[in-house]
Here is the input.
Amino acid sequence: MEAQFGLAHLWNQGDLVTKAVAIALLAMSLASWMVIIIKALDLRRAAAQSRRTEAFWHSADLADGLKKLGDEPGNPFRALAIEGREATAHHHAQPQLHDSLDVSDWVTRSLRNAIDDRTSRLQNGLAVLASIGSTAPFVGLFGTVWGIYHALVGIGASGNVGIDAVAGPIGETLIMTALGLAVAIPAVLGYNALVRGNKFIIARMNRFAHDLHAYFVTGARISHNGGQHGL
Here is the structure.
């Protein structure tokens, strides 16, 4: 009767180590795809929010501009505008130790802290993808090595050293290496894509924060041609 090989056979014939490796690879794959999908949706939302910043500058006043930025939770551009407004008001209203800083430095520090906080949130989950992308191939390779050892022990015990008895079990264990690569490749590609997306959003936040700084300090936004115009 023709021998049956494949994932089902590998699972049924595998020991606890082989099954643990397969489960680990499955968990890593699910985790990486979950991070990729969630972070991709976050970046898409942030990109849409960044396109509203120009409408913000064409508003009648700051309150109207905040409405145009939207009120979605976690909107980094709205958070920057609110942080700049509150930093300016706080500096003027309450004499404290920060009075040794002028309003420009104080607003700069407040906006920078807000950008750092939002950048940290954007980068959440990337460490998971980086870890999976770098370790999954080795986890799969470990499963292959262990499976080859397990198969050779079984072949030695049976006494059948024909090519058909060796090639099947050995080839079957190579599936674990393929599974490791199948987990790692999407994680690496997803990591690179998310890093590029984060750089785009961070650049837009820095540009918006620069304009906000000019507005809260001088009352006018610095235009791209070097002039200034009010909000």
Summary: The chain has a mean pLDDT of 82. The radius of gyration is 28 Å.
